[in-house]
Amino acid sequence: MTRLEAKAEAKVEDKNDIRDMAEVPQKSLEELTALKLIYPGMQQREVLNAFRDLRAKLVQKHKGNNFVLLVSSLSAGGGGSFVAMNAAASFALDEGKTAIYIDCNHEHSFAATVLGGLEGYGLVDYLEDETLDAKDIIYSAGIPRVRVIPPGMGSDTSVERMASSRMRELISSLKGRYNDRFIVLDVPPVSESSLARILSSEVDLAVLVVPFGKVSVNQVLAGIDAVGEERFAGLVFNNE
Questions:
Q1: How many CA atoms lie within 13 A of 119 on its CB side?
Q2: If pLDDT is split at 50, 70 and 90, which confidence band does 213 have?
Q3: Run of H or E residues at 211
Q4: Could you give the 3-state DSSP secondary structure of residue 202?
Q5: Beta carbons within 8 Å of 87's beta carbon, 6+ residues apart
Q6: Helix (H), strand (E) at residue 237
Q7: Where are the beta strands (DSSP E) in 32-177?
Q8: Residues 38, 87: Cα–Cα separation, whole Å
Q9: pLDDT, position 85
Q10: Secondary structure string (H, E, C) spanning 140-186
C-alpha cells in the first residue's frame, strides 16, 4: 500500500472512536507468538500473568480512568518495545478498554514489524505536516481493541518535532476523547536518546525496562532522573 492509498483509506474510515475502526484480519496465534505478544490462553502463562499484574499495578497507582504511559529501556536491546506493546495489549484484554501504542523509535521500529511493513503516514509525518489528521496515522494492529501509530519517516529534527506543541496536543487529544482509552508511548532507551526526558512531562506514568544483569545501579538512577520521580511507576526486569 502506498502512502496515498493509505491516506485515502484512512479518510474513508471514521477513526474518532477506535472501537469503530475497520479491523484488519486478526493475527493468528502463531503470529502473536512469533511477535512475542500476549493473548488469552497462551501457553506461557507466566508472561501473560506478569503483564496482567503490571496492568493492575499501574491502574492502582494512577487511581483514575485512563492514562498515558511512557516505556523506555535503560539500554539498547533491553526490551522496551516488547514491554510497551504488551502493556498496550494487556489493557485491551479487557473488552471494555482500548489501547493505542505510539512508536517513537523511528530508527528501530517495532510497529513496522507488527504492521507488516505498511507504507503509510506515521508520527513524524503528522508532526511535520499540519494537513494530516490523527486519524491518518492510526492503524489496526490485528489485535482486538489495539491500535498502532508507527513512527513514520524520521529525520534529523525528529526529536525536536516530538517536543513540539503539536505532539502535546496529539497526546492530550488521544487521551481526552474517551476515558477507556490507554496510551502507551514506546521511546528509545534513555541511554541513547533524550526523548524519555522530553516526553516525560506529557505522560502520567513511566516504566523503565531493565535488561536483567546488564545495567548498573547508576544507570537505573539516571533513568529515574530522566523520567522524573513524580511519574516513575517502577522497573520491569526483562530477561528476553
A1: 5
A2: confident
A3: strand 205-211
A4: helix
A5: 51, 54, 55, 58, 69, 71, 184, 207
A6: strand 232-238
A7: 68-73, 98-103, 139-140, 146-149
A8: 9
A9: 98
A10: ECCCCCEEEECCCCCCCCHHHHHCCHHHHHHHHHHHHCCCCEEEEEE
Quick one: which H or E segment has residue 236? Answer: strand 232-238
- CA atoms of 174 and 191, how far apart (whole Å): 28
- Hunting for cell 517495532 — which residue is that? 110
Give the neighbor-by-neighbor strand order of the sheet with 139-140: 139-140, 146-149, 98-103, 181-186, 68-73, 205-211, 232-238
Q: How confident is the model at residue 17 (pLDDT cuts 50, 70, 90)?
A: low
DSSP code at position 130: T
C-alpha cell at 15: 477513526
Please, what are the domains in the chain?
3-238 (3.40.50.300)
Grid cell in block for residue 203: 505522560
**One-letter amino acid for residue 218 of the chain:** N
Strand partners, 149: 102
Amino acid at 238: N
Q: Is 17 helix (H, G, I), strand (E, B) or coil?
A: coil
Instruction: Give percent of the chain with pLDDT exceeding 70.
Output: 88
Is residue 119 packed enough to be buried (19+ CB in 10 Å), middle (13-18) or exposed (0-12)?
middle
The cell numbers describing 92, all together, are 485491551
Q: With a threshold of 0.70, does the pTM exceed it?
A: yes
- From CA 18, how far away is CA 145, in angstroms rounded? 7
